[in-house]
Design a protein that fits this description.
Largest sheet: 6 strands, mixed
Distance between the termini: 45 Å
CATH class of the largest domain: Alpha Beta
CATH architecture of the largest domain: 3-Layer(aba) Sandwich
Strand content: 15-25%
Number of strands: 18
Number of helices: 14
Strand order of the largest sheet: 3-4-2-1-5-6
CATH superfamily of the largest domain: P-loop containing nucleotide triphosphate hydrolases
Structural class: alpha/beta
Amino acid sequence: MSRTYIIDTNVLLYSPESILNFQSGDVVIPEVVLEELDNFKRNNGEIGYNARHVAKLIEQLRKDGNLVDGIILSSGRKLRVETNYYEIGIPKSWDKNKPDNRIIQICKGLKEKGEDVYLVTMDIMQRIKCDALGIQVGDFSDNIHSSYSTNYTGRTELYASEENVNEFYIRKCIDLKELFCYCEEKEEYIRPNLIVNEFILIRAIENPRKTALGRYDGKRVVPLIYSNIRPLNISPRNIGQKFMQEALFMECDEAPLVIIKGPAGTAKTLFSLAIGLYKVLETNSREYRRILVCRANVTMDEEIGFLPGSEQDKILPFMRPVYDNLEVLVNSYYKCKEEDELNDKIREFFDKRIITTEAVAYLRGRSIYKNWVIIDEAQNLSPKQIKAIITRIGKGTKLILIGDPEQIDQPSLDFKFNGLCYASEKMKGSNLCYQLTLNYEECERSSLAYEGAKRL
C-alpha cells in the first residue's frame, strides 16, 4: 500500500519545497495548513519568506489541475488539499478549533478510510498526541539531518605498526594501506575509509602511547605543520586544539571555510581570535585586511532594536564574550600591568578597525574580501542563514563557523538541525572545508566548566 504523507505547517515554513521531496507516497496538505500559511505570509524574515514561497509553489501546481482531486507531481505521486473529516472524533478535552487538532482529525479520518497515514511534523507535542491515537508520525528533520551524536567530527583515531609510525616522522607521510581502524563489531582491525581534510591520531599497535598527528590530504596522511606556533603566546594544550590550530592556520586559498564544534571552554573563540590577530598583526603578507566578528544572537532576520547609539553600541552586549577573549589575548601578548592599559589596547584594535563587529543581519547582500570572518554561536542560525553567509565570502576571506550544538537558544532549532551541523554535513568532503569537533575532555576553561559541560 502506498503511504500518505500529511504535512504540518511547521514543515513547510522550514522547508518550502519539501512537498516535492516525498518520493514514496502521496502528499496531503490539510486546508487548515493553508490558513496558517496565510497568517504567516506578511511576517518579516525567513518565516514570512518561506510562507510566501510555499504559496507561490502551490499556486503554480494549482494551474495543472484541481487541488482537492489531486495534482500529479514530477515524482508521479499526487499532491492534494484535504477539506473533509470534521465529524471525526478526538478526545473531548482537545479544542477542535485548534489547527493542530484539526490536522489530527484529518489523519484519523484518512486512517479510518484505510490509507497508510504518516504525519510529518516538527512539533513535539503534535507527535505525542498522534502517538496517543495510534497515528504514525515522524519528525521532518529525521529525514534530512543526522543527530549531533552522529554528526561528522572531522577527526578519527587509527593504528599503524610502530615501525610505520617512526617512518611517518621521517618520510612526512604515510599511505592508507599502512593504517587500520578497530572495528568493535568484528573485533578486528580493518582498512579505514577517510574523508579529505580529516584529522588523524595515529597510535602504534604495539605501543598505544606512541602516537603521531596528521591530516588526510585526499591521497595520504601528512603531518601537521602549524602545531608548534604560539599565536599571541597561546599554545594548544591538547590534541583537539592542535587540530584546530592547524585548520585555522591553513592559507585561505586552501581552507577558506573552517567549522569548529565543541562544548563550552574548549577555546574555540580564543584560538579563532588569536590566530586571526596573528595573521593581521605579525605577518608581512597583508593576507587579511581586518577581523570581522559576528555573533548569531544578533540574527539575520531580526532588527537590532532602537536602543540609543550606533550599530556598534547596540550590539556591544552581544559581543561581551568576544571582549572577554580579547582581554585574555591582549594580556598574554602585551603583558599589561594596569586595567586601563589593557582596555586602551583593546579599544585601539577597534579604533584602528583591526577588529570590527557587525550584526549578522548586515552580511546579507555583501561580498566580503580579504577578511578574517568569525561567526560565533553559529548553532543559533538556521541552515538557510548559514547558506546566505557562506555565499557572501569573496576571494582572500577565511570564514570560521564556531559553536556548541548542545547550547541552542533559538526555539525553532535543536541539536538535530541547525546551521552549524547542517553546514558540517553538507560541506563534509569538500577540499575547501576543514572541520573539527572538540571533546568534553578538551575543555580547558576550568575544572568546573569541564564538569558542567559534561554533566549538565
